[in-house]
Amino acid sequence: MVLQKASLSEQIENALKEEILKGRFAPGEKISVEALAEEWEVSNTPIRDAMRRLEKAGMLTVKPRRGVYVATINQQDFQHVFDLRIALECLAVKTATTQIPDEQMQSMVETYQESERRLRENNDRDYLITHDHLVHDVIVQYCGNPKLIEYMQDLHNLSIWAQGTMNARQPDSFEKALPEHLAIAHALMARDRNAAEKALRLHLENVYQRAQAEW
C-alpha cells in the first residue's frame, strides 16, 4: 500500500477501517503498530494517532501493557446501532430521493452493475467491497440536513465496527447485500420516495436479521 504524505494519519485511519471492514483484522484480533508501520512504510506516530481516533469511535480497544485489539460487539450493541441507523437513514432517504443529481444516480447504478459483472466473471470481491457502502453514502450526502449528516457520519463508524463483526462471521454478506443495494439505487433513480424508503428499510432489516442468525 502506498500512502500520500498529506494528512497521513487520516489516510491510515481510513485504510485501517477498510482493512477491518474487509475482514483482514477480525474482532478481538491484536493489531501490531510496528507491523503496520513496516508494511505501510511510515513511522509509528501517525499509526498510533489513527488508532486513538478509531478507539474513540469504538472500533479498537487499547489494553494497557497488552496492545491494540479490534473491538468486539455483542448482540445488544448491534441492535442499538441498527435501531439508530434504520431510523436516521430512512429519514434521510425521504429528502435525498429528490436531491441526488441524475448523473450521480446513473453512476451509482452503473457501479453496482459493474460489481455484479466483476463478481460473476472474475469473482472480484475487492471491487464489490470497496463500493459496497456507496448508496448509503450518497443518501446521507444529499439528505439536505447538516445535523442529520453529522449524526449519520458518527453512526457510520459504529456501523463499520458492527458490520466488521458480522462480515467476519458471514463472509458472503457483501454478495447478499448487492441486489438489495441495486434495488435501493433503482428506486432512487425513479425518484420514488416511498419505494426508496421501503427498499432501504428492507435492506437494513435484512442485514440485521442475517447478523442475528450468527449469534
In short:
This protein is mostly helical and 215 residues long.
Structure description:
- The chain is mainly α and 215 residues long.
- It has 10 helices and 3 strands.
- A hairpin with a 3-residue loop joins strand 2 and strand 3.
- The chain is globular, with a radius of gyration of 18 Å.
Structural class computed from helices and strand pairing: mainly alpha
Secondary-structure element series: HEHHEEHHHHHHH
Q: Which residue ranges are poorly predicted, with pLDDT under 50 across at least 5 consecutive positions?
A: none
Name the shape in a single word: globular
Helical content, roughly? over 70%
Main sheet makeup: 3 strands, antiparallel
Kindly estimate the percentage of residues that lie in beta strands according to DSSP: under 5%
Strand order of the largest sheet: 1-3-2
Radius of gyration: 18 Å
For the terminal residues, how far apart are their CA atoms? 34 Å
Helix tally equals: 10
The chain-level mean pLDDT equals 88
How many E-type strands? 3
List the helices and strands and how they pair.
Elements: H1 8-22, E1 30-31, H2 33-40, H3 44-57, E2 60-63, E3 67-70, H4 75-99, H5 102-122, H6 125-130, H7 134-141, H8 146-169, H9 173-189, H10 193-212
Antiparallel strand pairs: 1-3, 2-3
Which tags fit this structure?
single chain; three-stranded antiparallel β-sheet; 10 helices; 215 residues; 73% helix; mainly alpha
